[in-house]
What we know:
The chain has 302 residues and is α/β, with parallel strands linked by helices. The protein has helices at residues 12-17, 63-70, 92-98, 114-124, 129-142, 158-170, 188-205, 216-222, 240-253, 264-272, 288-294; strands at residues 25-34, 37-47, 52-56, 81-83, 86-87, 99-102, 176-180, 208-212, 225-230, 233-238. The protein has one domain (23-294): P-loop containing nucleotide triphosphate hydrolases (Rossmann fold), CATH 3.40.50.300.
Amino acid sequence: MTTSFPHHVETAGQAAGRTAGSAAISCVDLHYAFGATKAVDGLDLRVEQGEVFGLLGPNGAGKTTTIRAITTLLPVPPGVVEVFGHDAARQKMAVRRLLGYVPQQLSADAGLTGRENVALFARVFDVPRRERAARVAQALDAVGLTDAAQRSAGTYSGGMVRRLELAQALVSAPRLLILDEPTIGMDPIARDSVWERISDIRAGTGMTVLVTTHSMEEADQRCDRLALMHRGRVRALGTPEELKAELIAHRRESGDADPRPPSLEDVFRHFAGSGLGDPGPDERRGEFSDVRRTRHTASRVG
Ligand SMILES: Nc1ncnc2c1ncn2[C@@H]1O[C@H](COP(=O)(O)OP(=O)(O)OP(=O)(O)O)[C@@H](O)[C@H]1O
């Protein structure tokens, strides 16, 4: 991959508000409830600059709610969530300018071409008009969609749709990329292709990545550190190897003589009381309509 992806350039105002050496993401005692449901219940989280950080947990653990708080889409009190030192309550626009977000819901429009979809995001994210065409072309190139850019997104395979959504998130050259289940509905080849694109871009820009996934293999292979969420809190935190070592130590202390080296699945079964596993029917390359079925559907996709 030869694409040189642009680095995020801070304005003077952004730089002034940023704490030197700040974490990419800091959440301190984050709470969020939907009525009586405590979706996030005292979450502490620190994601360092430049790492690929995996947020794992069973359905309903609070991962998406946490992401929505970080992306300023849910209201949080001042002083609780910071992104590169910017307060998500007081400096919403500064936070939004720093991040690219690929939500679970489809964000590509089937009726537009690939290029039009990315151009739309360039406008929404305020990429300067004179840079737009070049940045859209770079983003499409970075995800390997240049040749398909003139085709309608409705003709794309599931893997191509996800790469298109990645291009949409990348067109603003984010310092923090947030991916909510980026490879759901993809076969292993399409999955690897998405991660290779992300890895290429990170190598050029140092971009931080926060990802949620139900795939243990993805978490093990792609993430520098992981947090396991359960019932709105972080229950375990560390590199995949540290988490496995923690389970071995726990087995030793509790007299459990299981001689098998633990897998991440074992770690999560231990901390969350149940396994995570991949959602079943997604191990195939889907068409646009399949992706739509396997993910929550954005209302603007017909
Ligand atoms: N808009 C909402 N209204 C009411 N309850 C909600 C809403 N969004 C989330 N919840 C509830 O909050 C809790 C946490 O949900 P959340 O979507 O954050 O979990 P998650 O870990 O992302 O789950 P999944 O792996 O299924 O995506 C769940 O009990 C969920 O039902």
